[in-house]
Design a protein that fits this description.
Order of helices and strands: H
Number of helices: 1
Distance between the termini: 84 Å
């Protein structure tokens, strides 16, 4: 009985670590996606400004 509990405890600890690692990875990916989103918006606004500038000349 004791060894069974030990096996479950070890598995639960491993699963908890896996979940923590996944959450950390998700947080990093979300940060990267947010940065790319901002960069994309900046590029789009610069492209629009350049296009408007060329059209007005």
């Amino acid at each position: 009985m004791g060894s069974e509990i030990s096996i479950y405890k070890t598995a639960a600890e491993r699963d908890a670590k896996t979940i923590a690692d996944l959450l950390e990875t998700n947080a990093r990916n979300a940060q990267t996606m947010a940065e790319w989103n901002v960069a994309g918006q900046l590029i789009a606004s610069q492209s629009k400004a350049l296009r408007e500038s060329l059209e007005s000349n």
